[in-house]
């Protein structure tokens, strides 16, 4: 599907979708548990991939309604799957499930789509091997398809912290049900640290103790996943909140109110401060969980995305509208997402007339040297690129067509419906 956006002024109320990061973890944690009800869950292409993995491990995930999942778990140790686990486009699924597969007494095969099969899994495979399992890439390049044979009993393992925090999350979640537990020693500085904070928060809610140590993280073995009252509620997603928030900052006729913006461990809450620093009128009532934002003249700033890689596309679009330079730093790891998001935003915004400077670890948007013009741009089969380019279309001179826009289903299935509800004029083409 392609979507053509006509420049529009927006107003109204937006409901934050549930967090994708929390939903992934809650579904798998519920798989490790017995019977769990997961409320306010995001049912998207990515989280459905995690649910399918739980089903193949011997659990059962069913939808009671649009936002409620009933999960019958596999009580700690997964069965050997009867089929290949297809993680589709979900990197979170592949990494979390790879570690879970290492607990099974047998062999699991995991694969995904073309994009996912190009993403690095090597450090996690090496960690599983160091813990006594057998984990390898069928092509010998550290990328899927993967073949994992267990079971592992736990132990100490060293792993880099600057490639993906999901490796640490995967090992901590699996480590709780091993006999010995797992001590993770970080070989390099941890990037995207708030995502491990999310993991620790979810583990605690499921009754699992894990902690940060002087040189990494540790989880004791022999624990059970058991949420209080057999239920877990997923908070709103600040990665997704960044899009209506940025839309309000650049294209609101009056205030846009975002509901469901309750504080949590998510690093992407930083987007509220970023929008405020750039000059938009924004107010976050943390107790009520609401954010009110209205547009104003924006100015470029310097922003590190070391802990918030998913925000780079949104910040880049804000920079295209702002005066001066917006310098996005500590961005190397953003190149290893669904696509190389640093290059993708530089190239697609360039198609729209935006001047950028791309370096290995940074992206600078030269707002004052740019004229944002409508164009046909590629969404790169990446939900975050698609949504960020759609925002640019709200204020570009002329119509903007985003190709492959249906990939927003990965994290924000109702994104274009929401834009229309807020007043955006858009047309879908099959």
From TrEMBL:
GO MF annotation list? 3-phosphoshikimate 1-carboxyvinyltransferase activity
Q: In which pathway does it act?
A: Metabolic intermediate biosynthesis; chorismate biosynthesis; chorismate from D-erythrose 4-phosphate and phosphoenolpyruvate: step 6/7
| Positions of 3-phosphoshikimate binding | 20-21, 25, 164-166, 192, 310, 337
Reaction(s) the record says it catalyses: 3-phosphoshikimate + phosphoenolpyruvate = 5-O-(1-carboxyvinyl)-3-phosphoshikimate + phosphate
Q: Which PROSITE patterns match?
A: EPSP_SYNTHASE_2
Protein localization: Cytoplasm
Q: What's a GO biological-process term for it?
A: aromatic amino acid family biosynthetic process
The residues listed in the UniProt record as binding phosphoenolpyruvate, with positions renumbered to this chain, are 20, 91, 119, 166, 341, 384
**What keywords sit in the KW lines?**
Amino-acid biosynthesis, Aromatic amino acid biosynthesis, Cytoplasm, Transferase
Q: Which InterPro entries match?
A: Enolpyruvate_Tfrase_dom (IPR001986), Enolpyruvate_Tfrase_sf (IPR036968), EPSP_synthase (IPR006264), EPSP_synthase_CS (IPR023193), RNA3'P_cycl/enolpyr_Trfase_a/b (IPR013792)
Q: What is its EC number?
A: 2.5.1.19
Name of the protein in its database record: 3-phosphoshikimate 1-carboxyvinyltransferase
Pfam families (UniProt xref): EPSP_synthase
Q: Which Gene3D superfamilies match?
A: Enolpyruvate transferase domain (3.65.10.10)
Q: What class of enzyme is it?
A: transferase
Region annotated Disordered sits at: 1-21
How does the record describe its quaternary structure?
Monomer.
In what residue span(s) does the Enolpyruvate transferase domain sit?
Answer: 7-418
Annotated family = Belongs to the EPSP synthase family.
Gene name of the encoded protein: aroA
């Amino acid at each position: 599907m392609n979507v053509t956006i006509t420049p529009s002024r927006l107003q109204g109320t937006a409901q934050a979708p549930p967090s994708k990061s929390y939903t992934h973890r809650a579904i798998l944690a519920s798989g490790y548990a017995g019977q769990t009800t997961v409320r306010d869950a995001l049912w998207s292409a990515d989280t459905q991939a995690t649910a399918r993995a739980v089903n193949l491990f011997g659990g059962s995930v069913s939808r009671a309604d649009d936002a409620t999942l009933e999960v019958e778990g596999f009580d700690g140790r997964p069965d050997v799957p009867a089929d290949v686990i297809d993680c589709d486009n979900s990197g979170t699924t592949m990494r979390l499930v790879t570690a879970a597969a290492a607990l099974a007494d047998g062999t699991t095969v995991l694969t995904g789509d073309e994009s996912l099969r190009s993403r690095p899994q090597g450090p996690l495979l090496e960690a599983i091997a160091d813990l006594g399992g057998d984990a390898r890439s069928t092509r010998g390049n550290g990328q899927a398809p993967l073949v994992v044979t267990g079971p592992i009993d736990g132990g100490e393992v060293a792993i880099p912290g600057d490639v993906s925090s999901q490796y640490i999350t995967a090992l901590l979640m699996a480590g709780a049900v091993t006999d010995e537990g797992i001590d993770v020693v970080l070989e390099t500085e941890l990037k995207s640290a708030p995502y491990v904070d999310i993991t620790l928060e979810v583990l605690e809610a499921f009754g699992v103790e894990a902690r940060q140590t002087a040189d990494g993280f540790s989880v004791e073995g022999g624990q059970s996943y058991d949420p209080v009252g057999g239920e877990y509620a997923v908070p709103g997603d600040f990665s997704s909140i960044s899009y209506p928030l940025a839309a309000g900052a650049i294209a609101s006729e009056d205030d846009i109110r975002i509901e469901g913006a309750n504080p949590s461990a998510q690093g992407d809450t930083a987007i509220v401060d970023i929008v405020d620093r750039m000059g938009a009128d924004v107010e976050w009532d943390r107790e009520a969980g609401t954010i009110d934002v209205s547009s104003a003249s924006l100015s470029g700033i310097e922003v590190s995305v070391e802990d918030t890689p998913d925000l780079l596309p949104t910040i880049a679009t804000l920079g295209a509208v702002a005066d001066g330079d917006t310098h996005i730093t500590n961005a190397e790891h953003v190149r290893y997402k669904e696509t190389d998001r640093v290059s993708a935003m530089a190239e697609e915004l360039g198609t729209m007339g935006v001047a950028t400077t791309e370096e290995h670890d940074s992206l600078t948007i030269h707002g004052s040297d740019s004229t944002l013009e409508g164009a046909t741009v590629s969404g790169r089969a990446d939900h975050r690129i698609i949504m960020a380019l759609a925002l640019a279309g709200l204020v570009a001179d002329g119509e903007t067509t985003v190709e492959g826009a249906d990939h927003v289903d990965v994290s924000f299935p109702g994104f274009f419906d929401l834009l229309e509800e807020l007043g955006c004029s858009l047309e879908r083409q099959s």
